[in-house]
Write a structure and sequence with these properties.
The chain has 183 residues and is α+β, with helices and mostly antiparallel strands. A hairpin with a 6-residue loop joins strand 7 and strand 8. The longest helix is centred in the N-terminal third of the chain and has 15 residues. It starts with a helix and ends in a 7-residue tail after the last strand. This is GNAT family N-acetyltransferase.
Length: 183
């Protein structure tokens, strides 16, 4: 089996299921959700990036071209509510041995425990299925919900260094895979 076939198989079998949510790999027909997440002011105020429609189209086209062929370096899932079967957000792991984790949820799905369940399952996938060394994130230092979330997920949070090169001044946090198998 060649590398391309292995990556395609990994991509197609990368569905993650939790008690309330199902994560399916991002596909070309997920553009409408992607556009919503990257243009809604109520979401963008927390991450500091607001895209025009043209920028969203370009970003999605670029992302779509990378997801399947480079799955283990660029994992993106659409989050589906198991009850309503609606797409409610996107979560991602991006990087090689250390991966940045991020989750964007539509407003009606926020503050309901979705991010905790989804990120718990995504981090578990990073450590057990993709054998990643660590998971890290940046979050706006004034976003108390993100602070509580990463603390609850067991991340180490650097509250001393304020990373000003990010779209919003941000704290860095990380979680190490203590069970990583050396390759």
């Amino acid at each position: 089996m060649n590398k391309h076939t292995r990556l395609a198989d990994a991509y197609h079998s990368a569905q993650i299921e939790g008690p309330g949510y199902l994560l399916k790999p991002l596909a070309g027909d997920d553009f409408t959700l992607y556009r919503q997440l990257y243009t809604l002011p109520s979401i963008q105020k927390w991450i500091g990036v607001a895209f025009s429609d043209r920028q969203v189209e370009r970003a999605f086209a670029q992302l779509s071209s990378k997801v399947q062929p480079f799955w283990f370096d660029n994992m993106h899932w659409v989050i589906y509510d198991k009850v309503s079967e609606d797409a409610i957000g996107i979560t991602a792991l991006v990087g090689q041995s250390a991966v940045e984790v991020g989750t964007l949820l539509l407003p009606h799905a926020q503050n309901k425990g979705v991010a905790y369940e989804v990120m718990s399952n995504t981090i578990n996938y990073a450590f057990t299925q993709a054998n990643k060394e660590k998971v890290f994130a940046y979050f706006w230092y004034k976003h108390t919900a993100s602070f509580r979330l990463v603390k609850k997920l067991g991340f180490y949070i650097d509250q001393v260094t304020l990373h000003k090169q990010r779209p919003l001044p941000s704290f860095y946090c990380e979680k190490i895979n203590k069970n990583r198998v050396s390759v």
